[in-house]
Amino acid sequence: MTERSARPAVRPRSGRRPLPPLIFLLVLALAAGAVWWTVIREDQARRAEAAQACASAEEPPPQLDPAAVSVRVHNSTDTGGLAQQVADDLRARGFTVGEVANDPTDRQVEGVGEVRYGPRGRDAARFLAVYLPGAGMYRDTRADAVVDLVIGPEFVFPDSMATPEEVTAAFAPAEEAADTAC
After folding, report:
1. Whether the predicted pLDDT of 175 surpasses 60
2. Does residue 12 lie in a domain region?
3. Quick check: bond before 62 cis, omega within 30?
4. What's the predicted TM-score (pTM) here?
5. 158 and 140 in one domain?
6. How many domains are contained in the chain?
7. C-beta separation of 69 from 115 below 8 A
8. Which positions ≥6 away from 14 have C-beta within 8 Å?
9. What is the average pLDDT score of the chain?
10. Does residue 1 lie within any of the structural domains?
């Protein structure tokens, strides 16, 4: 007679690994990594956008002596004599006005006008733009500091020119801009 033990028989191991739980954990880890990758990339994009906004934030125009700014006035409209009227107004405000003529370029001007300048005339162009609100800025390759004021199709004399009070007010926010931090 044989004695039997009360313990059930042990099944032999099959040698199989728990593959489905491992696959599940791997997929879960990949999903978590993808989420973090997206969050980090969005944060970097947001920071880059904020840095660009700070860099391109409009700094106040420099306060220059109008006599130190040499301006050429060009008319790109069909209205005759407009460049001469603007040149006379700028002379009365103290600017050094050189050439007064029709626009010698084929560049299309939109709005009230455009201020064209080279690298050396950047500050003078920003200063002159205060006197013609809404004028576009266009940097070209000229080597000198002379600035061109090109009158556009929406220009109406004298309404498009800034009044002396508006010019003074344009330089006033310089203190306020220093208070805001990027």
Report:
1. no
2. no
3. no
4. 0.65
5. yes
6. 2
7. no
8. none
9. 87
10. no
- Residues of the domain holding 89: 66-179
Same domain, 74 and 50: no
**131 pLDDT higher than 70:** yes
Q: What is the token pair recorded at 74?
A: 């060009």
> Using CA atoms, how far apart are residues 50 and 54, in angstroms rounded to an integer?
6
What CATH number is given to the structural domain containing 113? Answer: 3.30.70.2390
Tokens standing for residue 156? 């109406």
pLDDT per residue as tens digits for the range 46-94: 998 888 777 666 677 888 999 999 999 999 999 999 999 999 999 999 9
CB-based contact 164:172 (threshold 8 Å): no
Q: How far apart are CA 83 and CA 103, in angstroms?
A: 10
DSSP letters along 90-116, please? Answer: HHHTT-EEEEEEE--S-----TTEEEE
